Amino acid sequence: QVHLVESGGALVQPGGSLRLSCVASGNIFDIYYMGWYRQAPGKQRELVATITHADDKNYVNSVKGRFTISRDNANNTMYLQMNSLKSEDTAVYYCTRKQYEAVGRWVDYWGQGTQVTVSS
């Protein structure tokens, strides 16, 4: 299996910045995509950003121009740089990895989550 560990969540004022990290370990496969989800109280879980093994990236409209997803393959680490933070960004952020492990089989893995709170 794969273990994912997030870090970097904190309390930050509106307009501030945070950088989230996700370190992957275990049985790593080369064909994959990774992403960040978030979930706020009373709301459904939302996909925020994704990145593939080919470095293709996508973002939900509400974070375009403010958030940047990236990775460091040498360290099996994914990042989410969050700038110009708003109160609506407050949520638990989850790292996820979907990888191709066998013919016709994609497997999902999840981190434990890290809390981001944007408040004055």
- How much is the radius of gyration in Å? 14 Å
N-end to C-end Cα span: 40 Å
Question: How would a textbook summarize the main sheet?
Answer: 7 strands, mixed
Helical percentage: under 10%
- Tally of strands: 11
Per DSSP, what share of the residues sits in E-state strands of 2 or more residues?
A: over 45%
Overall pLDDT score: 95
Structural class: mainly beta
Number of helices: 0
The string of secondary-structure elements, in order, is EEEEEEEEEEE
Shape: elongated
Walk me through what this model shows.
This protein has 120 residues and is mostly beta strands. It contains no helices and eleven strands. Strands 2, 4, 5, 6, 9, 10 and 11 form a seven-stranded mixed β-sheet that branches. A hairpin with a 6-residue loop joins strand 4 and strand 5 (46-52). The mean pLDDT is 95.
List the helices and strands and how they pair.
Elements: E1 2-7, E2 11-12, E3 18-26, E4 32-39, E5 46-52, E6 57-59, E7 67-72, E8 77-82, E9 91-102, E10 105-110, E11 114-118
Parallel strand pairs: 2-11
Antiparallel strand pairs: 1-3, 3-8, 4-5, 4-9, 5-6, 7-8, 9-10, 9-11
Summary?
The chain is mostly beta strands and 120 residues long. It contains no helices and eleven strands.
